[in-house]
Every structure is written in structure tokens, then in C-alpha cells.
Specification:
five-stranded mixed beta sheet, alpha+beta, elongated, single chain, 9 helices
Length: about 425
């Protein structure tokens, strides 16, 4: 009991162990629960200081500042939990690698019953173990960044669909070459030599004509991965795409966009890639005399899927756009021009980028009114916020804004700037 209590005190929300995931996860969970409770309390009008409760504007600003500070604490816990997740997931990648190696051994042993082991199965087992050893070394080198996940995680800390598909094809092609190399070493017969094929027939196993389709698919998917990275980088710099950092990679990133919604282009790329890769694996198992001879119909399907995915990346875009700015009117107020101290409502689209719905990112939004930068106040309701939203932002016009014609511009949490819309501010 004492040991258990000591473990709870060490691995609580305030745990500071360098490689301990327990404190980070528990601390993040508690911070999220505390933030939700505080947000709902303030949304119901409870917890306000008595000296500001009489002023709607002062109350709204105090609530926003209070929630912003709490949201930053949640974000810090989230980053710590994400770092702890990356530290421990590299061991899981090793378990997956060696689990696949063990499964290969089991399948080879079961299929050898009645037919004998043979040099082909020896080469297959040697290739599987060699690939597992190489992947283990790569995972250890990148253990601080998720092990084997490190090469397939994008700059936004999400799993990259293009990199995962390319990595799968490269791994399959490299394993096939390792298998042919070990088969040559064990059997002593080259796949290209006469009699090198299965059953002692004509070979031509690793010739260019046989492996041309596989090499074409590998080249295209690798090129797609490189081009997509360049396309996304350029579109971010030109503010045609908004990107925010994720806490840590998720499996759903392969099939969804940054906001967690299902993506057709990503999903079809993964499904077609998995189906084509499975076909290639079956061809290699049925005819282990050389590189798998992919039919050109399957190759064409994989290439069409890759180019559809690339076209989808070119078509993406979520730049913030301001359509109009109007004076916000409460029930019972008189209509009139915009004056300093009034609230204005900015209507448009793209104010909250995909994946930027967290409170700490909402609090980073800014509206530029003339020369003054106004931080967007968080207006809570039970379970969420009414301000800001993706299609509308409400902010007060500060007294520092000089009367006259001024420009209004929105700066999102991703740093993208919207177009400018002019309004008239009167005394």
C-alpha cells in the first residue's frame, strides 16, 4: 500500500520525470477537466469579481483573460503529454516490427509442414530478420521522435499520408531485394540465370522487364511525397493554406484532414495503396523467383490514385476572408454608426483553421482595426465558445482608434492575414 501511494505521489499531475509518461498524461487530463469546469462556471455567470460584475465589457474582458491563462496551462500540459507519447511510442513500433517478424516465422513454419523447409523459406526468414534488425536500429536512432514514426511525421506533427504510403512501398521493395539476395546466397542460383525461376524454369527474375511496374510505382509514390511537402510549404508561405501544430500524431491523420474530418483523397490513396501492395505481396509469395511482376492494370490504378491525391493537395485552401463588418446591436439598442467603444461583428470564412479549435489557439486570434491590434475575447457557453467562430468574430472598437475611415483585418491563430475591409468610425 505504501509503495502504491508513493507511486501515485511520484506519477501524479506534477510529475517531472524526464521520460515518465504517467505525470504528463494525468496532468493533461486534470488540466482539461479543470478548464472545462472553469469555462462552464464563468459561462453561467458565477465566479466573477464583485467590482467588475456591473460592467458587461469589463466582465467579458476579465472572463476572456481568465480563460486565456487557463487555456495556456492546458496547452503546456498538452505539449508535455505529446512529448511523453512520442517517447514511449517508439517501443511500440519495435514490438510491431518484431511481431511481424514472428508472424512471418510462424507462417513459414506452418506452410513448411508436408512440403519441407527449403532454401526459399530460409531466404524469406533471413530477409524478415534482417529488415527487422535494420528497422530496430532506425527506431533507436529516432527514439526521441517516435521511433519508426519519425520519418513519416510531417512538420505539423501529424502522420503524413504521402510519406506513409511511400514508406510502405519502399519497405516492400527493399524487403523483396533482401529476399532475392538471401535466396541467391542460399540456393546459389541467380534469378536472372536460366533455371533461376521457380521450379527450375527460365529465370529473368530481377530483370528490368519483370520489375518495371513495381519500380514505376515506387518512384511515383516517392516523388508524390516530395512534391506534396513542397506544395504544402509554398502554400503556407503564400498564405493559401493554414496549418497549426498537432499535439502528437494519430492514426486518424492518414484518413482525415487537420480538423479530424474524413478526407476522400487521403482515404482513397491509402486504400488503393494497401490493396495494390497486398496484390504485390501475393505475387511475390506465389512466384518467389524474382521481383513481383505487377499487372499494368494494377499499376495504372495505383498511379491514378497517387495523382488524385496530389490534385487534392493542390485544391486545398483555407485562407481567411472578411466579407463584411457591421455594428453589433443588442436587443433594445438604437441603430447608429460605429463609434469607439461599440462592438463590431466581422463576418466571413476561414477564421478558425482546421485543428485550431483548442482554446489556447482561439485566444491567439487578433483583429487589426486601423493601427490597433485587438485580441479577440473568448465568450464561453456550456461546452464551448460563441466567440470566435469560423464564420464570425465580435470585438470592441478600442478608444485608441481615431475617428474616420479605418481598415479591419483578421489575423488567425495560424498567422494568416485576411483581406482588409474599410469601415467608418465616428465620434
Amino acid at each position: 500500500m505504501a509503495v502504491q501511494e508513493a507511486g501515485h505521489s511520484v506519477h501524479g499531475g506534477g510529475c517531472t520525470c524526464g521520460d515518465c509518461p504517467h505525470g504528463a498524461r494525468e496532468g493533461h487530463r486534470r488540466a482539461v477537466a479543470e478548464f472545462g469546469a472553469r469555462r462552464d462556471e464563468l459561462a453561467s455567470g458565477r465566479g466573477l469579481p464583485a467590482q467588475i460584475a456591473y460592467s458587461e465589457g469589463a466582465s467579458r474582458q476579465w472572463i476572456s483573460d481568465e480563460l486565456t491563462a487557463s487555456a495556456r496551462a492546458v496547452a503546456e500540459r498538452s505539449r508535455a503529454a505529446g512529448a511523453a507519447w512520442l517517447h514511449r511510442v517508439w517501443l511500440r513500433t519495435l514490438l510491431a516490427v518484431w511481431g511481424c517478424a514472428g508472424l512471418s516465422l510462424t507462417v513459414l513454419a506452418v506452410t513448411a509442414i508436408g512440403t519441407g523447409w527449403g532454401p526459399t523459406r530460409t531466404a524469406a526468414l533471413a530477409a524478415a530478420l534482417s529488415a527487422a534488425v535494420l528497422l530496430t536500429g532506425a527506431a533507436w536512432l529516432h527514439r526521441a521522435h517516435g521511433g519508426l514514426l519519425a520519418p513519416v511525421v510531417g512538420e505539423d506533427n501529424r502522420l503524413s499520408t504521402s510519406r506513409v504510403v511511400a514508406a510502405a512501398w519502399v519497405l516492400f521493395a527493399a524487403s523483396s531485394v533482401l529476399f532475392l539476395a538471401f535466396r541467391l546466397a542460399v540456393a546459389g542460383v541467380s534469378p536472372d540465370a536460366p533455371g533461376g525461376g521457380p521450379g527450375g524454369g527460365p529465370g529473368g527474375g530481377s530483370g528490368l522487364a519483370r520489375g518495371a511496374a513495381l519500380l514505376l510505382v515506387v518512384a511515383v509514390v516517392c516523388l508524390i511525397a516530395v512534391v506534396v511537402r513542397r506544395v504544402v510549404t509554398v502554400r503556407i508561405l503564400t498564405q493559401r493554406v493554414q496549418k497549426v501544430q498537432a499535439d502528437h500524431p494519430r492514426t486518424a491523420d492518414l484518413l482525415c484532414d487537420d480538423g479530424g474530418r474524413g478526407s476522400f483523397t487521403d482515404t482513397q490513396y491509402v486504400l488503393v495503396g494497401a490493396a495494390s501492395l497486398s496484390y504485390a505481396a501475393v505475387v511475390l509469395v506465389r512466384d518467389p523467383g524474382g521481383l513481383p511482376r505487377l499487372p499494368w492494370s494494377v499499376t495504372a490504378l495505383a498511379l491514378v490514385s497517387a495523382f488524385v491525391y496530389l490534385a487534392g493537395k493542390y485544391a486545398e485552401g483555407s485562407r481567411p476572408v472578411v466579407l463584411s463588418v457591421v455594428r453589433a446591436r443588442e436587443p433594445g439598442d438604437l441603430d447608429g454608426p460605429i463609434r469607439t467603444g461599440d462592438d463590431i461583428e466581422i463576418r466571413g470564412a476561414g477564421f478558425v483553421p482546421p485543428g485550431a479549435g483548442a482554446p489556447d489557439r482561439l485566444a491567439r486570434m487578433t483583429v487589426r482595426i486601423g493601427p490597433v491590434h485587438v485580441h479577440v475575447p473568448l465568450v464561453p457557453v456550456a461546452g464551448g465558445f460563441t466567440n470566435p467562430t469560423d464564420a464570425g468574430i465580435r470585438v470592441p472598437v478600442p478608444v485608441d482608434v481615431e475617428p474616420g475611415r479605418v481598415d479591419v483585418q483578421v489575423v488567425t491563430a495560424a498567422g494568416a492575414e485576411s483581406n482588409r475591409v474599410s469601415i467608418d468610425v465616428t465620434d
